[in-house]
Amino acid sequence: MHPKLSEDLARLPELLDIARRCAVEALSGVAERPAAVPPAPPNPASLPDSGVGAEAALERFQSHWAPGFSGSAGPRYLGFVTGGATPAAVAGDWLTSTFDQNAAAGGDSSALDLEREATGWLRELFGLGTAHEGAFVSGATMSNFVGLAIGREWVGEQLGVSVAQDGVAALGNVPVLSGSPHSSVYKALSMLGLGRGCVREVATLPGREAVDVDLLAAELAALDGRPAIVVANAGTVNTVDFDDLRAIAGLRRHFPFWLHADAAFGGFAALSPPHAELVAGIDEADSVCVDLHKWLNVPYDSAVQFTRRRDLQVRVFQNAAAYLGPVTEEPDFVHLTPENSRRLRALPAWFTLAAYGRQGHREIVERDIALARDLGDRIAGMPHLRLLAPVRLNVVCFTLADDPTAERVGALARSVAGSGEAFLTPTVYKGTPGLRAAFSNWRTTGADVGRVAAALRAG
What we know:
single chain, 459 residues, alpha/beta, Aspartate Aminotransferase, domain 2, 7-stranded mixed β-sheet, 4-stranded antiparallel β-sheet, 41% helix, PyrdxlP-dep_Trfase
C-alpha cells in the first residue's frame, strides 16, 4: 500500500474529525459568508507526484480554494432556485459517502429498498397516486430527460415502432407543445435526438406565463390525430406561474398526447394547503419532474422523476448483461435511469423526510413564500424598482423603474453580489431585462429579507 494511503488509513478517525471541524466551521459561518465570491484568476497547480496526505490536502483546500466558495448554502443566496441542506440531509449525505453504495442493482444491499421507500414518501408528499413510480436522478434536467424519453417511446408505441429498438429515425417528427418550456427541456430534446426545433411554443394567457389551454387545444387539433408530447409547467422560472394541469389533462379525451409535468420546484406547492390548488391535476400527468436540491433542501445533486409507464421506461433504459440477471417485476434502478452506476442520492432525502416529516418541510415552504412576498412588498415601495409580475409563490421578478437595459440591470446585480449581502440572477421577462430573487433555503428569515432589501436600495 502507498505509504501516504497507509498512514491515512491508520489515522482515519482523526482525519474524519479534522474534516468534521472544517465542516462545522463552514456551516456555522454560512449565514455571514458572502453570498457570492467573484472568482479570482486561476492559478492551477501541477499534479502531485507522491502526494501530501489527507491532512495536508485539507489544509491546502482551506487556504487555497475554500475562501473562493460562495455562500450558496446560506440564507441570502437567492440566485437560480437554490436550496441549502438541512442538518439531517447533511448527515445523510456524509453517510452516503461512508457506505458508498452503488444503488443500481440489487442482490447485495438494502440500498434499493431504501430508495423505493424514499420515492414512495415523495410520491405521497407531492400528491401523486400509486400508479406513479419514481427513481432518483441528478437534477431537473435529467428528470425531464427521463420523462421525455419515456414520452418519446410512447409516441413510438402509438405509431407502431420502438424508438429504443429501431432508433429515433423510425419515429419521424415528434411535436412537443408547451407554453413556457424551461431551457432544460430543449437540452433534453437535443440529447434525445428529437431536436430543439421540435418544440412548438403555444401562446400564454395575457400577462402570464401559463399556457392558453384553448390555443393548446387548437394546436393539438391541427396535428390531425398525430401523437404528440405536451410539457406542462407547474411553476415557471421567472414568475412561478402554473399551467392548468387539470384542464390540459382533460384534452386527452380528444387528442393523443403524452403529458409531462415540469414541477421542478413548483411541485412543492402541494405541501401548503393554501397553495395546493396550483398543482391540482398533477396526478394525471404521465411523467413528472421534481428537483430536490431546490426546495427539499438536500445537497447537490438530487432530483426525482415519476411515471405511470414504467414498462416503457424499462424498454428505454434496460441494461442487458448476464451479470445483471433478467428484469424482474420490480426492476432494479439500472434499468430505469441513464446511469449504470448510481450514487445513493436517496439517502439525504430519506434522512430529511424522516427527521422533519411533512410538517417540517411544509413550514420551510410556507416561510419562504411569506418571505418572498415580504421582499416583493418592499420592492414595490422602492421608487427606483418595480415588480415585473405578482409574487405568486417563492420568486420575486423585478427590474429598474426607469430605463431597465441589460447593462443597468446587470450593474445592479453586480453591485448586490459585490456587497456580499445577496446573490440574484438576471432574466428577461416579456422582453424586459430583470432580476429574480428565489426563496428556497431553509435558513432564510425575515432579517435576511431586510438585508437583501437594504442591498437593493444601496445598489
